[in-house]
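Handout, section 4.2: multi-component inputs.
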Amino acid sequence: MVASKGLKPFRTFTSVAVPIDIANCDTDQIIPARFLRRPRSDRDYPRFLFHDLRFNADGSQKNFVLDREAYRGGGIFVADINWGCGSSRESAVTALAANGVRSVIAPSFGDIHYSNCIKNGVLPIRLSSADCETLRGQLRENPGAEIAIDLDAQSLTGPDQTTYTFEIDAFDKHRLLSALDDISLTMEFDDKISSFAKSYKTRHRWAS
Amino acid sequence: MAKTLFDKIWNEHVIVERESGDVLLYIDRHLIHDLHFRAFGMLKAKGLKIREPDKLFGVPDHSVPTTAKVLADIPEGEMREAVEVLQQSADELGFTHFPMTDDRHGIVHVVGPEQGITLPGLILVCGDSHTSTHGALGCISFGIGSTEVQQVLATQTLWQRKPKIMRIDITGRLGFGVSGKDVILAVIREIGAAGGTGYAIEYAGPAIEAMSMEGRMTVCNMTIEAGARSGIIAPDDTTIAYCDGLPYAPRDLLWDEAVAYWRTLPSDDGARFDKEVTLDADAIAPMVTWGNSPQWVLPITETIPDPGAEADPLVRADMVAALEYMDLKPGTPLCDIAVDTVFIGACTNGRIEDMRAAAAVAKGRRAKVRTLVVPGSGLVRKQAEAEGLDKIFVEAGMEWRQPGCSMCVAMNGDMLAPGERSASTSNRNFRGRQGLGSRTHLVSPAMAAAASVTGHFTDVRKLVGEA
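Output:
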């Protein structure tokens, strides 16, 4: 099995964590649509993240949480319900990754965004709404506080040293731990795909 | 064991099942639009090829200006590049593509069903969240990210976990002036914007059975706004009559085989659903959203809610922030809210029935505000013109445009100015969705037309008498 070139294995990660107090934070907020045609290599990519919440029309900063000194460079977000709902744009994860964000902790995630995170080595962690609010509260009170994540143990430790455990699908965990690329993973089953396609076409001639 | 519609189609496509329950699914149809123009170069860079080009269909929609008829009409830059690269890739790699000069072009989720590319029993994907639309024909359809787009191009498969299944029964009958758009907004109000997360939703019940394919597509389209990737409706006589004779639908003997199979697909009696919800169609009124999530929606007869009455402090804060962004005050009747622009179109409401519903209200009246009418495809445009709907819109002072996504995603030059308020038949009222600082209210086509001719939200049932 081949680890993907661009992906880094996710095992443990400790970083300053940023509270994002926005319920139903849709991917249009995470990256506005007008940036979606830009290549991943665009040097401005880090600025696209939360662009319209961070910058005024003249490019000056709005003092969004991400840009406050203590939170700067924070690699973990603690968010609210339904993080990443809406548009399927994978650019939302590209924008997170371009800023060094490797994990988002939230009570719930948009399904497509969740899947996009997994495929880009960003770990989405589901904790209860109450736990997320507790963590966000601690991060608001202690700007610059850190969270430590251990994917193998499926646990994380908050600023007050409380440890939380989380659930994750075994296959998703495996892919993140080993930085596996989906296409390479699939190619192992190349023969099975071919024989399936053949039998499927016989069973459903109308569908071809 | 009794099976659901979703299970039957899913099981038929499983190539490999892992211990974790994740499966490798075979994909029947892959639709692609201009925003994925970089996918082909990335695939090539990895030394990969399109595995089954005959299952790939491309059409530009997001980046097409609704004033443009040919490629050269698109301003130079990234908009034109996206449309141009998609077309060149189709020519070079040999997949079907409907260029903007072809009447069959339009919004990918309007074109797929219209051409019979979407059919019952299939699994269809597209790198766009509103792919849920296609489930209205009785297939599994869902939106995917760009890594998954490359995976489908290279392998014709996807790794997926089966979602839980929710059934939403819409009992009773829809009243006059109430449409599929109002039904799905009522559903989202009921279950919330995250209510469907982790689920696929099967819609059923008398009100769904009585609905046209267009109405069903509107319902499935906004399923993603309830958090679910897939919406699905059992194929029935309405579905089969709709598909019959479409350009890419099977013919003759294969058609008979297809229909025989499709008839086996509806959920069995006694099939178990992970969650069941029931709504009464008779109680649904024309709906208007007031916040920045489609769940913040109310019947037109209501007033802007008071966040002070909300017990949950997090929800209260969210409501306060939404009212501030939308510049609205608690207690204001929805009918008193004036609009600056009206947008009628999008994959939600850009089909012929939507054009007819808007024209019925516009006929003999005058638009009081800027109103864009954007058909969902070249064929919808042609049909509307054959019925004289374009004349009704133009005589009412509305703009009759070329097809595309237009002001739903505001990536083609059609947008609101900062602070402007719209009545829009699109699917998302997110902050900045229709342009920086834009304020969007989601409504049905009839309600959008009513807002256009009165200048504010209006109960279309009162404006237009029942015939």
